[in-house]
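Quick one, probably user error.
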């Protein structure tokens, strides 16, 4: 009888839960980032939705969350089944490479040969069964030695996403949809995005990665050896009394770099990056326009209203209203409006300009108004 665990049995899910979601200010703040909010209408936070989506794949006991120290209490309150030793706390944000690589290094030390799947805490996926089927294929490809991403079939020429250029079919048993990735492409302008859509061999980069932990760390070492050395030193001390001391010493020195640049792009250049096209509805709820679209689609309404006690009167208006105050908000004859009303800050813009909210956050920070961030 074969006692070797199958590839899917070796899967450990990792949820990087960081960032403040600056394009969703003033709803999303440093102390209450977007993954802690219910933005999908599910009745629970995006983080809880992600945990529930992954539990049937890896089991609740094999899910690790990497988050900031300031969010520990909120994360543990929302994820009561999360094991204490699977909470990895960052002393400060260092971008996705450090977060995912540290998780990989800790898990590889605990369980050599582990396969990790990294899935953001703040995405909305409407077809969990199809998502899990794509991940299962990705796990088989990862077990064959590839670093794997899951790409999303574009529905429009979006300029807010990076793109994945797909190549030939991979011959991996259990993964009939797997393709070689020829290269990653930065966020394009509109004309270029339309060209990608017409070409038909480009997918949106959704930031999901599946890999044997040792393979991911090996690739990181080839491109960012100092970052890898720091991560490995942290992992060595992680399950010892020296953890706190080493985190305070090493973590702030780690290079800030997205995993797309440190791992995915070099792997694509080396021919070791694969993609599984995701046959499911996906949204990264990156701005208020996407939230408005999410809540309006198929619901027969032009105006999305979020807030338990929202008091909104609307006439011939469309867009989104997010209310966290007791004020009455009246809209008359305005189209594609975005109104976010909180006790200490008010945002008014349009769906067309929703991506520019980040510039407001940057201006507030530069002007010394960090108290509202």
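Nope, works fine. Designed sequence:
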């Amino acid at each position: 009888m074969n006692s070797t665990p199958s590839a899917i049995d070796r899967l450990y899910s990792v949820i990087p839960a960081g960032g403040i979601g600056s394009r969703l200010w003033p709803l999303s703040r440093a102390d209450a980032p977007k993954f802690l909010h219910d933005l999908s209408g599910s009745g629970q936070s995006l983080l809880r939705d992600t945990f529930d989506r992954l539990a049937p794949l890896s089991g609740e006991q094999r899910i690790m969350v990497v988050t900031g120290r300031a969010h520990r209490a909120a994360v543990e309150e929302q994820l009561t089944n999360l094991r204490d030793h699977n909470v990895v706390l960052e002393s400060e944000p260092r971008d996705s490479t450090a977060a995912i690589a540290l998780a990989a290094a800790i898990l590889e030390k605990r369980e050599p040969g582990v396969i990790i799947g990294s899935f953001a805490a703040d995405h909305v996926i409407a077809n969990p069964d199809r998502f899990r089927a794509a991940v299962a294929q990705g796990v088989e490809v990862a077990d064959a030695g590839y670093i794997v991403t899951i790409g999303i079939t574009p529905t429009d020429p979006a300029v807010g996403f990076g793109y994945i250029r797909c190549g030939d079919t991979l011959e991996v048993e259990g993964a009939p949809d797997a393709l070689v990735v020829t290269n990653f492409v930065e966020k394009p302008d509109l004309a270029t995005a339309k060209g990608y859509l017409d070409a038909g061999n480009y997918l949106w980069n959704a930031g999901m990665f599946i890999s044997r932990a040792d393979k991911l760390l090996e690739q990181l070492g080839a491109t960012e050896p100092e970052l890898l050395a720091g991560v490995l030193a942290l992992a060595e001390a992680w399950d010892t009394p020296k953890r706190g001391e080493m985190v305070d010493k090493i973590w702030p020195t780690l290079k800030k770099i997205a995993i797309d640049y440190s791992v995915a792009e070099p792997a694509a250049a080396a021919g070791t990056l694969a993609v599984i096209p995701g046959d499911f509805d996906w949204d990264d709820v990156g701005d208020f326009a996407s939230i408005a679209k999410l809540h309006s689609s198929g619901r027969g309404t032009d105006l999305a209203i979020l807030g338990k006690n929202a008091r909104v009167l609307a006439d011939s208006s469309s867009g989104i209203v997010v209310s966290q105050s007791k004020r009455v908000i009246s809209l008359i004859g305005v189209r594609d409006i975005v109104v976010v009303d909180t006790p200490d800050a008010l945002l008014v813009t349009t769906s067309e300009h929703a991506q520019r909210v980040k510039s407001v956050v940057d201006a507030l920070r530069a002007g010394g108004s960090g108290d509202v961030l």
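The radius of gyration is 21 Å.
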